[in-house]
Amino acid sequence: MKRVLIVKVTSLGDVVEALPVVADVQRAYPGVIVDWAVDDAFAEIVAWNAGVDRVLCAPLRRFKKARRWSDFKSIWQSISELRAHRYDAVIDIHGVYKSAIIAFLARGRRRFGYLAQDLGERGAAFAYNGRFGPRPKCDAWLGMRISTGEALGYTIDTPPDFQMRIPRDGNALPAPDAPTALIFHATSKEEKKWPVEHWGELCRALIARGLRIELPWGSDAEHATAREIAALVPGATILPRLTVTQVAQRIEDSALVVGTDTGFVHLAHALLKPTIMIFVATNAEHLGVRAPNRSISIGDGHHVPPVSVAIDAVDRVYPARDADGTPKAPLVSSV
């Protein structure tokens, strides 16, 4: 096994959680070269993985929205890059038309994808001459690792290794001068949001613990929500609008990350930060983050998790301690 192509095109959280397949493949086949095909909106995320040799990207999502000629030319040019090397195996762990087309165009001896019933779009099956087994009964993230191992002939017996290396440059914000909780209140769908009042109560409890509160945002609507939360939390800081790299840098500089089911919270988990992910309308068992004493997902996907459950999660991943190391009493919510 000399060269392998991983195809996982979108979205931010899914791409982040797929990254451990690189370390898995290289552990099974020392010296193998791993390339990755991804939408250009998430190319920098993949580039942060120390094990990836080439990041192959094209503006697929942007072209679908705007249909610009410049984006079409970029996609066309990317095909020659895709075909610059021959692969021993092409692994499509996305399973939709766009990922299947990439897998089909790549120069691969074997092209692996999901069984028809496990594909996101059944028509994608045309691209594969090898199949993973039925999707395993586990979360989506471990499932991608298991499926890749099935294709390449190894088993998964190690924790996920994301191999993330965030670049540090002159555009990073100054490091916080006190322990900081980064609050990702925004999410892609309205039904996935946690109530502003809940955020206010949780943030006040975190301040009582000695944490500063920072509120990132990425759109005018998210900025408005950040202002609503800040109005309930004396001393909270609304960050300026940041690039993806700047957000990643800020995550690294934070003591705790709390947020909804959104990509940046997955990134916090991958960067080994104490992380809490709040689920309101999606499945925490299938899509959540978990690591002993570090990452916890709360919520059943059908009800709004109460603040008390979030506070209990904080106590588990970021226990308060006195200066001598003695644990403090558990947090209590404020009103």
> Ranges with pLDDT <50 over ≥5 residues?
none
User: Can you count the beta strands?
Assistant: 14
What CATH calls the topology of the largest domain is Rossmann fold
CATH architecture of the largest domain, by name, is: 3-Layer(aba) Sandwich
Taking the sheet with the most strands, its summary is: 6 strands, parallel
What's the SSE pattern? EHHEHEHHEEHEEEHEHEHEHEHEHEH
CATH homologous superfamily of the largest domain - what is it? Glycogen Phosphorylase B
Derived from helix and strand composition plus strand pairing, the structural class reads: alpha/beta
State the CATH class of the largest domain.
Alpha Beta
Number of domain modules? 2
How much is the average pLDDT? 92
Shape: elongated
Helix proportion: 25-40%
Instruction: Bin the strand percentage.
Output: 15-25%
DSSP summary: helix tally: 13
Q: In order across it, which strands form the biggest sheet?
A: 3-2-1-5-7-8
Cα separation of the termini: 60 Å
Rg, nearest Å? 21 Å
Description:
It catalyses: an alpha-Kdo-(2->4)-alpha-Kdo-(2->6)-lipid A + ADP-L-glycero-beta-D-manno-heptose = an L-alpha-D-Hep-(1->5)-[alpha-Kdo-(2->4)]-alpha-Kdo-(2->6)-lipid A + ADP + H(+). Pathway: Bacterial outer membrane biogenesis; LPS core biosynthesis. It is found in: Cell inner membrane. It comes from Paraburkholderia tropica. The protein is an alpha/beta fold and 335 residues long. It has 2 domains: 3-152, Rossmann fold; 180-317, Glycogen Phosphorylase B (Rossmann fold, 3-Layer(aba) Sandwich). The chain has helices at 12-18, 20-28, 43-47, 60-66, 69-82, 97-105, 140-152, 196-208, 220-232, 244-253, 263-270, 284-287, 307-317; strands at 3-7, 33-39, 52-58, 86-87, 89-92, 107-108, 111-113, 130-131, 180-184, 212-215, 237-238, 256-260, 275-278, 295-298. The strands form 3 sheets. The protein has a 6-stranded parallel sheet, sandwiched between helices. It has a 6-stranded parallel sheet with strand order 11-10-9-12-13-14, with helices on both faces. A two-stranded parallel sheet has the order 4-6. Helix 8 links the parallel strand 9 (180-184) and strand 10. The chain is elongated and about 60 Å long. The chain starts with a strand and ends in an 18-residue tail after the last helix.
